Amino acid sequence: MLRLALRTLKFRRTSFIATFCAMFFGAAIVIGCGGLMETGSRMAAEPQRLHEAPVVVSGVQTHHSTALAERHRIDPGLVGQVAGADGVGKAVGDVSFPATVLKDGKPVTSGSSSYGHGWASAPFTPYTLAVGKAPAGGGEVVLDTALAEQAGVRPGSTVGIVVEGTTRQFRVSGVAEQNGDRNPHAAVFFTDDQARTLAGGQIDSIAVLPASGSSADTVAAAVSTAVGDRAEVFSGESRGLAELPGTLAGQRTVVILAAVFGSSVVLIVMFGVASTLALSLQQRAREMALLRAVGSTPTQLRRMILTETAVLSVASVLLALLPGYAIGRGLFAVLTSSGVVSSSITYHAGAVPMAVGAIVTILAAAGATRFAGRRAARTEPIAAVAESTIGTQWFNVPRLLFALFFLANGISLAVATATVMEDGPTLASTAGPASVLFCIGLVLLAPGITTFMVALLKLPVRAFSGLSGRLALRNAATANVRMAGAVAPIVLLIGIATGTLYMQSTENAVSRSSYDQNVLADYVLDSTTGGFAAGVVDRVRQTPGVAAASELVTTRGFVDGPDGPAEVDLRGVSAGGVAQSLDLPKVAGDLTALSGDTVALSDKKAEEYGVKVGDKLPMHLGDGTKVNPAVVALYADNPKQPYLTMPASLLAAHTGERLPQQILVRADSGSGDRAREGLAALAAQLPGSELDDSSSLAGRNNQIQQILVSANYTIVAMIVGYASITVVNTLVSVTRKRRAEFGLQRLTGATRRQVIGMLSVEGALIGVVATVLGTIAAATTIVPYSLVKSDSYLPSGSIGIYLAIVGGSLLLVFGATLLPSWRGMRGPAVDTVNAA
User: S-S: 15 plus which of 235, 280, 321, 543, CB 3.0-4.6 Å?
Assistant: First the structure.
């Protein structure tokens, strides 16, 4: 049977190449998405500054299993407890805070930041003194070689450094050089006491060196026991997470992205492989009938088909391993370059994604073999020969049940998106798969739907296409299964591409417009040196032409409720300028009372949390600190900007920089130019300050959604690419199978031009049917998503997106149909018939 299967593969190269391509590319794509999932699940990062520390202790970076938006710092007293754990040789507390070196009043680092640390942590990078000596007093620093060179200083020189938003003068006691190239930013070393003071009195992490003879794993276990639930202990490849706490927030994004698109990819790949293999088996109906007629048993045919499939599956999966790994690396590179995850995260793609890709491909092929090969294997020989000439019956109960299953689930997800899901980052997790499921349901019923739609198009086709149209209609009526096989992959292509791209364009448009409407300020001052000191906002208010100014801090936190913590967006503002800077229509209370431990929120949020003005709202801030602010004001709800508002000074103290990064400025009516000139002059006096129009804030709003744009487009391109391959495979295979039919038409009097005309009409019919079905499927994603986002049934975005998708699909149809047909008809018609 193996010999027969191999000989069959040899003489059926076209159909088997198409099947192989579907399996190969499908397995590679699944493996790539699996690599993303494994990377997100493991979330490992190589250490940067603390590379030489085998064990690192850091604050707990989650709150009820949800990643914190800011670093959770720890008490310095924990260093002594860690140092006393069994097997610990040395424990050093580490801090990190913005420290910008100046030259001629301007930052020497462009495009990157420099940070201050205690000198005791330098050996863990390792840094060693190149010249000079370690800092001995509060006014001394050690610069790394890059900073010293850029600033043009040497030991004994004085250098200006911006710390805590203020420029201070320090004496350079030494210059340190780094052994290796691991540190992602320039370093300024202070004495340990001063570094801790400048960092706010707490420490970021503890670097641990085991004592002689103690292993890192043993020490990590002992330290974990010593710190209990007050801190987390990292060792091995996860140590970098202690230095990059924000990466844990990216973990959820990567996992959700891989899960949503991975599940869609798995469905599409399984369908693509199954449909391509099923089409190949349908085209071999005559061969199967002849084998049955000469005495082959159903069992023998099934074994032959299964052997063929196994050979193709194994070959395609083995060859797809390296391309699959490369696809996963490419997707991960897009995520890191767009800022979804840190570039320090280690990409992992081990045996699990490889196995998943292999299993998905093999299961899809085995399922197609089971269902598509069953009919040929069980049909009686004489009936099989007859059936191979008159076509295949497509309708059966299992097919109907599967179709209803996918359609029902697609509709359910669409309804859930429109009525159950709230506007948020996870909205796409129900909206996106809806069109995929609905597409598959429509495709399973495509032969019947195609017959019905062709009947509706009969009159216009006859009226405008003459003989070619009548031939095309005849073929569509007698070979509805074949036409449906050509329609199916195009439905997937149009439905998925249209749904996903318009979902993204709607998200972009709504996010930008809602933010623009909410921000009333005319200008924004940005700091690139760690933030603005407390008195800067008052200087801004005193600038001629300025009506109001408010500091702005953005982060995320949690509202503690009876059902657990709810993650929320938080904005820190200045009470004196918030009303003029942000559109917060007052419902109750007073926004100017936002000072100290207070909070203001929308009336809808207040109702959701069960609070009113004067009540306390239990919360945890971005670094996990528990607070209980008093509600001082309620404002009208804006579902597109569902944030809570707190004093900037309160929120900033619990962020990485500990200072506001932006100041919103409202100009007096008619004084815009004067205000801009005054603000520009003020910015020039503040090192690292930049003045911009407030519209620039819209581009930074909803950062996770915005940085996912390139990732979404990349993955959509990958899915569309696979669907396109399936389209070309299907159409080329179908067209080549019909060469004998074209030869007979030419022998009976049809010209080559008439045959091409017939195929053109068939292609147009396929395009129309696929466009209608794909658009209907895309609507299950677009309509509910647009309703939630913009209260409109129509998505935001140019009609050009839709026209490009449909136009590209039609080009694929005509290219994959007409080109092989034209090539096949270059020789004499009789040779074409004989060759078949």
Answer: 280
